[in-house]
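Field reference: "sequence" (input) and "structure" (output). Example, histidine kinase:
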Amino acid sequence: MKKSHRYTLFLLFFILTLIVGLRAFRYPEERTVALPVTEGAQISILKDQTLGNIEEILEIAQQPDRFTAYNPNTSRTSSDIFVSCWIQLPLSNYEDRPLERVLEIDYRWVDIAQLYEIHPDGSYTMYQNGENIPSAQKGLPFATHAFQIEFAAHESKTYFLYLRDYHWLLPAITMWESPAVYVERAHTEQNVVFLYMGLLTGLILMNGCIYLALRDQDTLYYILFLLAACALHIVHFNLHTTLLSRIEMGQLAWLPAGVNFFLYSGLLVLTAGLFLRFALEFLQTRHYCPRAYRPVLYLANALVLASPIFMFGPATLFGRSIISIIVSIWACSHLIALSLALYGVFKKVPQTYFFIPATFLLLIVSWQYTSILMTGGIPTSELLLQWLYASGIEMGVLAVGLSERIRMVNDQREAAQANALSEAEKRAELQEQYNNQLEHDVAARTSELAASDQQKSELLRIIAHDIKAPIDGVSSLARMLADSPQSLEPALIKEYTKDIEGSAAHLSELTKSLLLWGQLQTGKHSVGLQPYLLSDLQDAITPALTMLAKTKAIHLDWEIPPQTFARFDFESIASVLRNLTINALKYSHPESRVRISAEVDSERIKLSVKDWGVGITPERLQRLRKQRALESTKGVNGEPGTGIGLQICYDILKAHKSNLHITSQVQQGTHCYFYLRTWNQASQ
């Protein structure tokens, strides 16, 4: 299922739960009885710190204007530390049957409540309830202050209710139509409270395990927020009294009502601070709103540090304004968190889809509760349970959002691990390819070095052979001329001299070839491309070829177009053309011909050397094409060869980005050609 669909279903379920839950907290009005129930009478109140004796109250009740009308809409706070009051309740039964009622003082922090039933003879019966009253002495075993009263048919009674509190807030008084109705409602309320506490306990345990497993900081602050909320509502509903009374047989309560109230105030401030701290981590405010992160963080820490001031009493200096202060702190903290979440919507933070509904719900439901407290009123049980219900939904929604965030983080971690594994596999594959390529390059280089060593050895062998022959010939002829010059005829001396000259020319040509080849191999021969006339090549190499051509009576045919320019290195290309022509003369029959030609097109020039001599065998031609023809062979008349002429041609033409092409047939001749780029003034 897509994320958007999951969020839509979640919001629908959230709205349905909200509607059903809030409707469930609406109590039927017909199950309560409106006060007063005596015709012409009114509920009256007497505020006096010094009066605590029922006999005095009975005398004062006979005096006019001492008891004033009880108005639940008046200010309900006091600046006094200890407050007590008496409330006169005239009640009647107009039915023909006996009735049982329950009188409930709907306020949780009343220190003690005493109900006096006045009999017709002036005597009275006292019933007690409150924080310090053991459960065995209470008429109804619930934390709220309730009294069961009975009426005979058409009986009227007057009750006096004595209340004592610490920074007392005027309570709301409700009369239920029967003890069964009150017990049912009280059981329902208490079950809801315990369900809520069970929810908080489950969330605390679950998120505790998650925190131990993942160590996420937002999970830690959520646990602290849950613990503070749990303590807050335990104090709020006085659950500590009920639980401790069961353990200690109703003989002791840990916290009196006054401390209970201030402990509740401090826990409310602590919860506000921890909620802000959790919101900062849960919404990842540090990343999408860094400017607001630090001020809100300081505010959250300040609230946490200030909470003991409210818990342990120094906040009494604020007087009656303490309630406005703590309610404002709680409301403002939620508004700040909600503002951060709304800004997170624009930054597309996924957690805001959970945080905004939960926080907004709690603010709406608690608005009436907050406004009543701000005006000094007392929230009813219905409002308290609605706040509890909204808080439970908030905790659940935030837990779902936190689990969704943890799932997203885990998905991101798994994706990162998968990416890391994939990258590692790619790196391993690349490393393997690199190693294979390195091995291949090393093997190829080794093969090249071995071939080069073999070539150099072969070259040394050829050079030694080719140089040895002319040197030996020159030495023999020179010795003969030196030993007996008088015995030799002039014609023979002239012939020996020409042989010596030819051997010297051969040695000179061999030396030039060796120097050029060595420079090409070491990279010291630089190729300078310049525009030259092709006819200049003919003029440069003809003198060196004429003697060899005349010796075999071979005719050199030059077919070079006049005024034709090409870009090349003159000395290098002259050496190529000279080597190819010498080879053609060596392997041509006497009285044959060798043709040197040039064919010009728009972009390049084809230079060719063609002979009609002995040709080249297919095996040797294959070696020549693979540039493996480093060998010394003799010409038709036994002319010596250097064996490196073609290798020099290949290397020079490679520097010119050209190549040597050879075609040949045995006893039909050989055709060698290569290409040069043309040049004209317009292309300069």
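Residues 246-253 have pLDDT under 50 and may be disordered.
Residues 472 and 594 are 31 Å apart (CA to CA).
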